[in-house]
């Protein structure tokens, strides 16, 4: 398969993300204001409390069985390694740039936690849909793509809302020990989506690590425990209407989350006082260092027999987990702790602008290696 053909296959899913994000940014402009602060606020609530739980639970319940989880055992370890390597590189970046204390948790979060939710859910199936993809028959490829993306979503979310949340809380306590917040900021979003939408509303519900993890645990239980699975999953299951309803809600999650992502990246255009060296350092970690390390990890795992050499799509997903830009949940957490929101918006803006190019190039290179 020619390099140009591989490049085109890799480009298509990235273009889909760019297009949806661009539409979200456009309709959030002051002149349009279809997705202004108030609308964004309410859409974020719907995504966090309805659509995101639906897609997480239905995807895991339908695609992850006990046998498939055993087969894919290396993926949770691979995701853990992205956090470990990212944290080490973040620590080096903090030392080199002398990052202020109140931003250190944000730097660690952006370097360690990648967008393992909606980007794989968009990109992996989109790659399979291309007729010239290097992973074989599109229908077979698409059948395999969903469990890979679903497990990535689940494990990434659990680590983000435990490790990163804890680190940011630690540095927030250090950085604001003597500070008193002057206002209450609304907090409502999802680990798959983006920054909370507005600081003009106060709501009683706040996203917590428990909120983010409980739905994934339920999805795992339904999928892995055979009696429960037979009740809810399949054309003859007595309670199949529950799964069908969740699946229908879940289909709306990705477009909504990507629109919100575009709307909230608009905040980054207003700028902040975050230093260029920190932004460039985070971009270098997420767009250069981690993808290169990912190739080494996956190749080593294949050579040691930890993953099957014949399943190229699985290897591609494992490499992709090292190459995605920072998780938007980091922005959610800055709103939760009321610290560094503007700085995070700028970081997210530039990392995602660069990711539009780096993801295409790295995806092309990954496919070329595997093909």
TrEMBL record:
Q: Where are the transmembrane segments?
A: 6-29, 73-94, 106-127, 147-165, 245-266, 278-301, 313-337, 349-370
Question: What biological-process terms (Gene Ontology) are attached?
Answer: auxin-activated signaling pathway; endoplasmic reticulum to cytosol auxin transport
Q: What would be one Gene Ontology cellular-component term for the protein?
A: endoplasmic reticulum membrane
- What's the short name of a Pfam family annotated to this entry? Mem_trans
The compartments listed are: Endoplasmic reticulum membrane
Q: Does the keyword Lipoprotein apply?
A: no
Which keywords accompany this UniProt record? Auxin signaling pathway, Endoplasmic reticulum, Membrane, Transmembrane, Transmembrane helix, Transport
The UniProt entry lists membrane topology as: Multi-pass membrane protein
Name the family the entry cites.
Answer: Belongs to the auxin efflux carrier (TC 2.A.69.2) family.
Function of the molecule: Involved in cellular auxin homeostasis by regulating auxin metabolism. Regulates intracellular auxin accumulation at the endoplasmic reticulum and thus auxin availability for nuclear auxin signaling.
Q: What is this protein called?
A: Auxin efflux carrier
What's the source species' lineage? Answer: Eukaryota, Viridiplantae, Streptophyta, Embryophyta, Tracheophyta
């Amino acid at each position: 398969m020619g390099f140009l053909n591989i490049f085109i296959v890799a480009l298509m899913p990235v273009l889909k993300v760019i297009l949806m994000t661009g539409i979200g940014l456009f309709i959030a402009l002051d002149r349009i204001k279809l997705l202004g602060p108030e609308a964004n606020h309410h859409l974020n609530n719907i995504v966090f409390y309805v659509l995101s739980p639906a897609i997480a639970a239905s995807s895991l319940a339908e695609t992850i069985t006990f046998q498939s989880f055993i087969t894919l055992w290396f993926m949770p370890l691979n995701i853990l390694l992205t956090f470990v390597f990212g944290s080490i590189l973040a620590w080096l970046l903090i030392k080199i740039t002398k990052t202020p204390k109140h931003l250190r948790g944000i730097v660690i979060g952006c370097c360690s936690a990648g967008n393992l939710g909606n980007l794989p859910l968009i990109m992996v199936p989109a790659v399979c849909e291309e007729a010239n993809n290097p992973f074989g028959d599109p229908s077979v490829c698409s059948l395999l793509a969903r469990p890979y993306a679903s497990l990535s979503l689940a494990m990434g979310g659990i680590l983000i809302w435990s490790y990163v949340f804890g680190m940011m809380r630690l540095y927030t306590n250090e950085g604001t020990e003597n500070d008193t917040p002057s206002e209450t900021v609304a907090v409502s979003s999802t680990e798959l989506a983006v920054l909370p939408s507005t600081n003009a509303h106060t709501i009683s519900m706040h996203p917590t690590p428990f909120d983010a993890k409980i739905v994934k645990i339920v999805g795992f239980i339904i999928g892995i425990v055979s009696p429960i699975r037979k009740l809810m999953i399949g054309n003859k299951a007595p309670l199949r209407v529950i799964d069908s309803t969740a699946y229908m809600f879940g289909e709306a999650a990705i477009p909504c989350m990507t629109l919100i992502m575009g709307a909230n990246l608009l905040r980054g255009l207003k700028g902040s006082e975050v230093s260029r060296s920190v932004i460039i350092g985070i971009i270098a970690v997420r767009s250069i260092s981690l993808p290169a390390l990912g190739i080494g990890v996956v190749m080593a795992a294949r050579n040691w027999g930890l993953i099957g050499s014949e399943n190229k799509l699985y290897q591609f997903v494992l490499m992709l987990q090292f190459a995605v830009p920072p998780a938007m949940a980091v922005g959610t957490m800055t709103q939760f702790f009321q610290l560094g929101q503007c700085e995070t918006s700028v970081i997210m803006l530039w990392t995602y602008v660069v990711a539009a190019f780096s993801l295409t190039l790295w995806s092309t290179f990954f496919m070329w290696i595997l093909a």
